Amino acid sequence: MEARHSSPGPPEYHASQPKGGNPLTEDVNHQYLFFEAHYVYIVACAFIVWLIVPGVGFLYSGLARRKSALSLLFQSLMILAVITFQWMFWGYSLAYSRSAGPFIGNLEHFGLKNVSIAPSPGSPYIPEILYCYFQLLFCACTVIIVVGGAFERGGILPSLVFSFCWATIVYCPLACWTWNANGWLYNFPSLDFAGGGPVHIASGCSALAYALVLGKRKNTSHPSHTKPHNPTLVFLGTAFIWCGWLGFNGGSTLNASVRSFVVIFNTNAAAAFGVLGWVLVDYIKHNRKFSLVGACEGAIAGLVGITPAAGYVTPWLAGVIGLITGCVCSLMQNVNQWLRIDEGMDVFKLHGIGGMVGSFLTGLFAEKSIAMLDGMTGGSGAVDGNGIQVAKQLAHIAAVSGYSFVLSCVLLGILKYVPGLGLRVSEQAEMVGLDNYEFFDEQIGDWSLAESLQGMAVVKRAGSTVSEIPAERASQGEEGKKGNA
């Protein structure tokens, strides 16, 4: 019988060559020659993850009133730019340095020093520069989600300063806790496949802190002031996010194994079941009526719920997680009223509460047989007889939510009193809208046409037709004149 030839093992990291080799004297690609499928797969996932950036921008823009929609699109792009600088400056080193402590890394890779073609700390199958880029997108997406807590009354420039600082003192430590081999949650261990804690729970709790520190918006008493101005943008943003999350979760295996393909299927299943759960609750609560925005929120809830569990559960359990998360988040519709905080983008409801539900269910449903599909990862939950994992997941939830909320409040409290920064825009700027106040020559839509249409209402009185300004528009005064319908 002909002997089988086994491929060589993955390349090893050597401290004597932190860059992985000298391209001037050797072909540095040879060490990855047998693992091309792995790094090509991760590159493709990274490209897909990037779609989440405009996706969140579209989603937030559609959910906001039109007078502040452009600012949210702008912020999504600007935050990506700021976080790219932060990550290159010291963010990556604080989160993933090889000699990190249990709580935060050091400046070993300050300025991306020695981040090159050596095997990455996350997976020996891919070079560190690719790993660095993939994790950069995680950080950027998280910060963009957080800033949703400030919509319609938070200044753009202060939000960018906050983004840099928040990524440094909140996200990077949490990423180190959860995914760095030296992190305390990594060794606890808690199970968090792709970011239930650092991405979702942290962003939800931090957005809640942002809304709390800024205070409530002005003039939101009328129902039309809290409705999405463009459900089509909400749908488009959700489609981008759903697609991007397939790469977000699918690439988190950091290899092209069978586990990666199970993760992709699980992610899609959870999002689909999240839609079913949310729509079912809406259908019952609202007398057999549907909501497109509700269906979109259900998809996001399902994606949030499956994020920590995607690499640990079977497809049917992934669907169950999506369904439960969608139902729970939909039932939390009035959480802002209960908390008396104006967090109108529902970041805390979808990401904070959804992330907590997903992390808890991971402790229940994780199966080692799924985790081991990549040939190297363990992890099991109550269904495998490891009931203590549920308590560890609860500890994980408490630590991440407490740390992110408290540190965000402290950071925002400091920025609030920085002279000249202006964490919250003036009342006048809020009334006319951030688009009118912050931008010099751009607006969404034809405002003159909108004014003409909104200023005319046909009212039948005694068999005759009379055109008049609606009472709602008249009560808005100058704000109404700026298109705030």
Automatic annotation (TrEMBL):
Transmembrane recorded as keyword: yes
PROSITE patterns, A to Z: AMMONIUM_TRANSP
Source organism superkingdom: Eukaryota
Gene3D superfamilies reported for this sequence: Ammonium transporter AmtB like domains (1.10.3430.10)
GO cellular component, one term: plasma membrane
Subcellular location: Cell membrane; Membrane
Listed transmembrane segments: 39-60, 72-90, 133-151, 160-181, 193-212, 232-248, 260-281, 290-310, 316-335, 347-366, 394-415
Span of domain Ammonium transporter AmtB-like: 41-439
Pfam families membership: Ammonium_transp
S-adenosyl-L-methionine found in the keyword field: no
Primary location group: membrane
UniProtKB keywords: Ammonia transport, Membrane, Transmembrane, Transmembrane helix, Transport
Similarity-based family: Belongs to the ammonia transporter channel (TC 1.A.11.2) family.
Family annotation (PANTHER family): AMMONIUM TRANSPORTER, AMMONIUM TRANSPORTER MEP2
Protein name in the entry: Ammonium transporter
Organism name: Helicocarpus griseus UAMH5409
